[in-house]
Amino acid sequence: MPDFIPYRPLEMSEQEQLQRARSFYEFCDMRRSIREFSDRPVKKEIIELLLKTANTAPSGANKQPWQFVVVTDPQLKREIRLAAEAEEKQSYERRMPREWLDDLAALGTDWHKPFLEIAPALIVVFAVSYTQQGGKVHKNYYVKESVGIASGFLLAAIHHAGLVSLTHTPSPMDFLQKILNRPDNEKPFLLIPVGYPKEGTNVPDIHRKELDEYVVWR
Ligand code: IYR
Fold it and tell me: Which residue in 101, 106, 134, 182 has the most C-beta neighbors within 10 A?
């Protein structure tokens, strides 16, 4: 049996709960994906704290099946940009069906990814499917769910620190494994440029669904 320690709940009145729930919602509702970055650097200690926040996410059997690679080296960022653009060019020009391209029209995206060089830091999230100890393979559990939740925590922490990000998924992403020299048990999951927005950048005028479109009560 593991040791158990007392859980100390956050105690607050219903009034305070309502106020905090509303202000957190309003704060999260201000987050936007940004595609134009400034080259202003982000202090390493801030990024470390964002990653520590991601690492507080729940995970299958507490295996914490994620690995983050933070890329700030300009040469490596360039290599990643060129590889991502080569894949994205193929995708936009050959692989993505018309319906997908039509869905993306509102976002104004194309295969050019200058932000991969301009953003001061690229956080590459890897999903760790298993670990190896003493020649024995230990499988992780609910890896995609766990890494997805940790990535959500990371995006919220980035926003909370007054920074911006893009949840980027160049496809296929295996070039990241090669360029970043990661082992076979790690698969690229998301590529998240982090930094400050380019001054005067715009975001698409898109809207979130209304509550009754995505919630039912039973
Ligand atoms: N990965 C491509 C295409 C793309 C796909 C979806 I789904 C988006 O929400 C946005 C873009 C790109 O990054 O351009």
Answer: 182
